[in-house]
Design a protein that fits this description.
single chain, alpha/beta, 5-stranded mixed β-sheet, 15 strands, elongated
Length: 357
């Protein structure tokens, strides 16, 4: 059983792991704390970028010889494979640590097995410490690897009466600059931003992560994905400006049998599979109401983030349409997990409730 010091160290490791959000994909975020034989913290580390040293190696370098006989507390099971870096399991064994405390087992079959290797070398291993907290901090990567598709976040902005545009089609700007800046910050932490061609035709968005005050682009840009069954995105639209990579996904490339009218549609599950193959682990779905409804009806949305403006329109475009719900009994149930005020607006975060089978 983990000691109080180890439980506290895992909390610190979760904090460290969060520093890698937005820069480690397609790798996970990982944090590590090393304590010496007297229980003093002698090393800390986190995985900062893909291809860089893993959290355990960073912490071991800081601890040096003080790690020998000590305890390593790490959010994710140490890797057991040779990739761009060597296996962390071997590094820990060579450092002579006596005990390793793990938050979550690694679901990646190519990297898992570190706990077994450590035990075979005589290192004591305990897993599942603060597991729920560790899962929450690395939920996008863990979910993506387990399902072999990106963790999908539906983000939208709406008035208090659920409208995403006015009766004349105008939608800029429903929410405040503070809310829009929050969205751009969120974009910089995901690997892809997904919209439908209707959004491109109506708003001509750039879909980049940038500073709204000076227009400067973030260092890391997500892949811009346009779901465009018939290839209608104009060649001069802003998504083709070269500021970030763009993929226009058409029915010719990812076709499904078609909708009720017999028109070919982009197969959304195929789309997500292809994105995973392109190292996308977290994606932001930004529009519009019809595409969001299709993803929700297919059960492909993992989180919902709504920016709710203190405005009323009374008419106009609904934020969501045709989500596969015909009666109240079939409503998509959500669980609120956070409500935060962003300027004059509210950011409401919710998770779809799991359907008991």
């Amino acid at each position: 059983m983990a000691s109080q010091a180890e439980v506290a160290a895992m909390g610190r490791a979760v904090e460290l792991a969060a520093r890698g959000l937005g820069t480690t994909s397609p790798n996970p975020v990982v944090g590590c704390v090393i304590m010496d034989t007297d229980g003093r913290v002698v090393g800390e580390g986190f995985h900062a970028y893909a291809g860089g040293p893993h959290a355990e190696i960073v912490a071991l370098a800081q601890a040096g010889e003080r790690a020998r006989g000590g305890t390593v507390v790490v959010t994710l099971e140490p890797c057991d494979h040779h990739g761009k870096t060597g296996p962390c399991s071997a590094g820990l064994i060579n450092a002579g640590v006596a005990r390793v405390v793990v938050g979550v087992a690694d679901p990646d079959t190519h990297a898992a097995g570190g706990a077994r290797t450590l035990r075979q070398a005589g290192v004591e291993v305990e897993t599942g410490v603060r597991e729920a907290e560790v899962e929450a901090g690395n939920i996008a990567w863990l979910t993506a690897v387990r399902r072999q598709r990106p963790y999908l976040i539906w983000k939208y902005a709406a008035t208090l009466d659920g409208r995403s545009a006015a009766a004349d089609g105008t939608s800029m700007w429903i929410t405040s600059e503070a809310a829009r800046m929050d969205v751009h910050s969120h974009r910089s932490t995901v690997d892809a931003v997904i919209v439908g061609v209707g959004t491109v035709l109506a708003d001509n968005p750039q879909l980049t992560a940038r500073n709204l005050r000076d227009g400067s682009l973030a260092i890391r840009q997500p892949l811009r994905v346009v779901v465009d069954s018939e290839g209608r995105a104009p060649p001069d639209s802003r998504i083709r400006d070269g500021a970030a990579p763009t993929w226009v996904a058409t029915a010719a490339e990812l076709g499904s049998p078609g909708d009720a009218a017999g028109e070919a549609q982009v197969d959304l599950e195929q789309l997500l599979t292809r994105l995973y193959e392109r190292d996308v682990r977290a994606a932001l779905l930004e529009g519009g109401p019809r595409l969001a409804g299709a993803f929700l009806a297919a059960g492909l949305v993992d989180k919902v983030v709504c920016y709710l403006a203190p405005r009323l329109l009374g008419a106009g475009t609904a934020a969501l349409v045709e989500a596969g719900v015909g009666t109240v009994a079939d409503a998509i149930e959500l669980e609120f997990i956070d409500v935060t005020r962003i300027g004059p607006d509210l950011r409401v975060t919710a998770l779809p409730r799991k359907v008991e089978g």
